[in-house]
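The protein record filed here:
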Amino acid sequence: MKRNYLILLLTALFTILVGTGIIISVYGYSIFWLKSNELKLGSAGEEAVTTQTVVTDSASLPANAVAFSDGTFLIGDSSNLVFDNANDRLGVGTSTPWGSLSVEIPDVSDERSAAFVVGDVGTSTPALAVYSSGITTIEQLQTGAISFDENGGMVSAMDMPVNLTQADLTVEGYNFLIDASTTLTVYAEANADGGIWNQRVGIGTSTPGATFSIQTSTTSQYAILIDGDSGRDFVIDGTGLMGISTSTPKKNLDIGTGLATSTIVIRGGGAVGGELILKDSDGNGCTMITVNDGNINSGDVPCP
């Protein structure tokens, strides 16, 4: 039994000189082949056997270079792909990585040349891309809370450039969605001069029709609510009824008493004073009511 182990050990350590090379073999099968400063793997104890290079001469692998195969040899370039073993840093396109993973942005004239890409080969919409211009694009982004520098002053949260190629009235903007439903829209239109006009903000709508537009999804929800103290409320409900000092308007304009000593005050200008024009109930004309020195006067006037 001991003899068999001894034979196996001697066979594994036995070397045969073949030309200028050395083969270390076990039972006739070459394990390592050392020739011309190349360490190779082989499959038989003959020089003519096809082998695969494992390591080249150390002179061809610079310090910190990460070796890769060129199809024949393992080669390395200390300026393109390096590992800083002392600081546990990997560098791509740089010889001095300064982070755990450092990717150098190429210094080229094409600003759309990608330095770092995550996506399918050749895709025009990669999941993540960092370009030579320094711009980073992300096709879809899920994020938690977004914060800014402390005492950052007036911060530009985002920007959408518009250039001369956009036709007049082309819609530009952002939709902020919750559960795929538009909640807030920042809207503008291109002016065909490299700028924008018709800036609008929409709540509950992606097509705001005015500078500030609100669209309710149900008549049971207020469109606008200013909740003042002690009944000083201002509301426009989902049906368009307006309430002042009441949160439950019953007519187009419903004014409650609140805590004010006067429910309605109409202040006119000049010598005429205040006036109130009411449309007649039959719809055929209007009546103007004026107040002068404590006297109330009324008369028919054309409807404005």
